[in-house]
Design a protein that fits this description.
The protein is of the alpha/beta class and about 400 residues long. The chain has a seven-stranded mixed β-sheet with strand order 4-12-11-10-7-5-6, sandwiched between helices. Strands 1-2-3-15 form a four-stranded mixed β-sheet. The chain has a domain of about 230 residues: 3-Layer(aba) Sandwich (Aspartate Aminotransferase, domain 2), CATH 3.40.640.10. The two termini are about 35 Å apart. It is built from 13 helices and 17 strands. The structure holds pyridoxal-5'-phosphate (PLP). Pyridoxal-5'-phosphate (PLP) binds next to helix 5.
Length: about 400
């Protein structure tokens, strides 16, 4: 039985999987299939492989930790968990404590629980419970995170959902939806799945101040934007805001599953209020510590900002030259997109690129999305764009 046949027979078909290549190994921004063909990865496993594939330092840290201890449960002290929480507070400059989960959706679930707890008095009486999110947002696939996601098409089959989620068309519309029951606003600073849409900086800063004044929590979903994806540790650092809650996941573990909820509400949860069996174990937190160390020096050396600038310039040039296909270039840092013109399909461009052996992604609002590994080299970038252009020339 072939692996493809096994996959088709035994794995639940929830993904529109691409069976054209079967990747077996990687090296930084390069992926290699079973036949030995190389691909340039401008997707990094959907913003996850932040330090590239096969990173020797990350591999060494994981191996070393695996030989010592992988897991003991949260009943006992976990050294790398404590160190990681400290590092996240230092690097972000936020006065926070962190809870560790295993995924983005799970981190958002925890953030929503924090908001609900904030809206409930100590006797358990619900005072405020509504959470405002944005249209075109994406917050995850669990029932509550799905309901928080402002895309009605994703709510068709799985109801009934928890109450209390309201969707704003854009940041300005949030003010119209606030009422006496509103406890929190949850947003992405750059919408990812919804089509690489950065929020306007001044509008975000104004919102943060207005919410603070009304004692409404600001939750920023940084599952995709966090961990240097936009050039700073957090997109919140880039926007110069201090949210009450920040969630992380994708890039944090370099591929090892981990989620995190950072909050300035350091006393909000008591023993027993929340928990996770796997969350924050030795393996995932040790991996994340190594990822942060690698990326911090990549940032400090100036290399990250330099590469992000080159990438942006190249993409803008492509948008200009191929204006028959693209309206414009969008995004921030290494979270970029090309908005595809009416009459063309982003999916077709993604497929043509794959045929030329460069991996790019599709996002909502007909966008070709680029989420390169943060440690990409100039040579890898040049090869990736050379192949992408070859694909565009065939369309
Ligand atoms: C990917 C993503 C999630 C969901 O993360 P999972 O790890 O798949 O649960 C949530 N929010 C944002 C902004 C994301 O990009």
């Amino acid at each position: 039985m072939t692996i493809e046949a096994m996959d088709k027979a035994y794995v639940l078909p929830t993904y529109a999987r691409n069976y054209d290549a079967h990747f077996v190994r990687g090296e930084n921004a390069m992926l290699y299939d079973a036949e030995g063909n190389d691909y340039v990865d401008f997707g990094s496993g959907i913003a996850v492989c932040s330090v590239g594939h096969g990173n020797p330092r990350l591999a060494e840290a994981i191996c070393d930790q695996a030989k010592k201890l992988i897991h003991t449960s949260n009943l006992y002290l976990i050294e790398p968990q404590a160190r990681l929480a400290k590092r996240l507070a230092e690097l972000s400059g936020m006065d926070v404590r962190t809870f560790f989960a295993n995924s983005g959706a799970e981190a958002n679930e925890g953030a929503i629980k924090i908001a609900r707890r904030y809206g409930t008095d100590d006797e358990g009486n619900v005072k405020r419970y509504k959470i405002i999110t944005l249209e075109h947002s994406f917050h995850g696939r669990t029932i509550t995170a799905l309901k928080a996601t402002g895309q009605e098409a994703m709510h068709t089959y799985f109801g009934p959902f928890p109450d209390g989620f309201v969707y704003a068309r854009d940041i300005e519309h949030i003010y119209d939806l606030i009422d006496d029951h509103t406890v929190a606003v949850m947003i992405e600073l750059v919408q990812g799945e919804g089509g690489v849409q950065p929020m306007e900086r001044s509008a975000v800063q104004k919102l943060a101040a207005a919410l603070k004044e009304r004692d409404i929590l600001l939750i920023v979903d940084e599952v995709q934007t966090g961990i240097y994806r936009t050039g700073e540790v957090l997109a919140s650092n880039l926007y110069e805001i201090t949210p009450d809650v920040v969630t992380l996941a994708k890039g944090l573990g370099g591929g090892v599953p981990i989620g995190a909820i950072m909050t300035t509400l350091k006393e909000i949860l008591k023993p027993g209020d929340h928990g996770s069996t796997f969350g924050g174990n030795f393996l995932s937190t040790r991996a994340a510590l190594e990822v942060l160390e690698i990326l911090e020096s990549h940032k400090t050396s100036g290399e990250l900002d330099h590469m992000m600038l080159l990438f942006e310039e190249r993409l803008k040039e492509i948008a200009r030259i191929y204006d028959r296909l693209f309206d414009k270039e969008v995004g921030v840092g290494f979270m970029r997109g090309l908005r595809v013109k009416e009459g063309f399909d982003a999916g077709e461009i993604v497929k043509a690129a794959f045929d030329e052996r460069v991996v790019v992604l599709k996002a909502g609002r007909n966008t070709v999305r680029f989420l390169p590994v943060l440690t990409m080299t100039k040579e890898e970038m040049a090869l990736g764009f050379q192949r992408f252009i070859a694909a565009l020339d065939r369309l």
